[in-house]
């Protein structure tokens, strides 16, 4: 079955089942195009909390599907491939957060949503790459335990007077660690008029070369609003596919053409179709963990309105 025919079948079946397909910006182009909602972690979290559908098919990695599940306790959330597990999220188990809280009892715990629900249940509030600075600066505490991405923690530290303690010390996204300052500098030489848009999961040396440090949704917004015609994009290649599709009159240069999240790319149209038919694999979060992680997520919404 070709991609076009399969896409049509998916759309028809989703309508019949009152299902919504949510997809992250790093998904394959053909999945981006059949999604009811396409966005970054914050946008998808917000959207999942507003849905009135009975079934949610989440084309993203595990922690994202968990967010949808804990925000929608009365709905069924399925993920097309259970192996779509974020390596960074696994770097911060709940026991590591618990240990850090004992060592710093007066600190607030701010966890990136790129973290499994069991760890987020230990947080005061969660954040995304789009709102991390806003969330941290909205807290009363002067000391912040922040995890799991140490590069995002560095970015926050540049924009706050608070003490930021990364947990773990070297948490990272393997895709954004691929970008190097040398590669970006060479691209700047080749495209001197291009704006440099860098994701804050990138190393500090790369962030320092940015014209704008952005989440994926902020990169899209900047490209829409900027007077520039060329952009160097330092994030996973999936966003470049979206930018090229939605803004065909602009030029988007990937910082690394093989900057690919293998876990995101595990989802396929065929797997989405089967997930819709079988309504599985179901994403389930234990109720005690879900309640606490939900509270941390809802607090994020409260302090990052807009």
TrEMBL record:
GO biological process: 'de novo' NAD+ biosynthetic process from L-aspartate
Cross-referenced Pfam families: NadA
Location of the protein in the cell: Cytoplasm
Enzyme Commission number, as recorded: 2.5.1.72
Keywords for the protein's UniProt record, in alphabetical order: 4Fe-4S, Cytoplasm, Iron, Iron-sulfur, Metal-binding, Pyridine nucleotide biosynthesis, Transferase
GO molecular function, one term: quinolinate synthetase A activity
Co-factor remark: Binds 1 [4Fe-4S] cluster per subunit.
List of residues binding [4Fe-4S] cluster: 86, 173, 261
Gene3D superfamilies: NadA-like
The protein's required cofactors: [4Fe-4S] cluster
Residues that, per the record, bind iminosuccinate: 24, 41, 112-114, 129, 199-201, 216
Reactions accelerated catalytically: iminosuccinate + dihydroxyacetone phosphate = quinolinate + phosphate + 2 H2O + H(+)
Pathway participation: Cofactor biosynthesis; NAD(+) biosynthesis; quinolinate from iminoaspartate: step 1/1
InterPro entries the record matches: NadA, NadA_sf, Quinolinate_synth_type2
Family: Belongs to the quinolinate synthase family. Type 2 subfamily.
Role: Catalyzes the condensation of iminoaspartate with dihydroxyacetone phosphate to form quinolinate.
The name this protein goes by in its record: Quinolinate synthase
């Amino acid at each position: 079955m070709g991609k076009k025919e399969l896409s049509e079948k998916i759309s028809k079946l989703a309508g019949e089942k009152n299902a919504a397909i949510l997809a992250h910006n790093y998904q394959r182009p053909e999945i981006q195009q059949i999604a009811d909602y396409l966005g970054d972690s914050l946008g998808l979290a917000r959207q999942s909390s507003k849905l009135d559908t009975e079934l949610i098919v989440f084309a993203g990695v595990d922690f994202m599907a968990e967010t949808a599940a804990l925000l929608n306790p009365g709905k069924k959330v399925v993920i097309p491939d259970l192996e779509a597990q974020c390596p960074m999220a696994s770097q911060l188990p709940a026991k590591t957060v618990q240990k850090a809280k004992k060592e710093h009892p007066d600190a607030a715990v701010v966890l990136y949503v790129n973290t499994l629900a069991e760890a987020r249940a230990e947080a005061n509030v969660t954040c995304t790459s789009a709102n991390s600075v806003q969330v941290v600066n909205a807290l009363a505490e002067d000391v912040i335990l922040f995890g799991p991405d140490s590069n995002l923690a560095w970015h926050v530290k540049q924009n706050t007077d608070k003490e930021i303690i990364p947990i773990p010390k070297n948490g990272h996204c393997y895709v954004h660690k691929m970008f190097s300052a040398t590669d970006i500098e060479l691209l700047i030489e080749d495209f001197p008029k291009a704006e440099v848009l860098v994701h804050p999961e990138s190393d500090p040396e790369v962030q320092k070369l940015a014209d704008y440090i952005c989440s994926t949704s902020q990169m899209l917004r900047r490209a829409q609003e900027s007077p520039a015609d060329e952009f160097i994009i330092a994030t996973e290649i999936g966003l470049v596919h979206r930018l090229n599709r939605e803004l065909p009159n602009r030029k988007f240069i990937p910082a690394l053409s093989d900057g690919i999240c293998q876990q995101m790319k595990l989802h396929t149209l065929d797997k989405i179709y089967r997930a819709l038919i079988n309504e599985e694999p179901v994403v389930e979060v234990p109720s005690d963990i879900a309640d606490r992680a939900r509270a941390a997520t809802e607090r994020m919404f409260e302090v990052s309105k807009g």
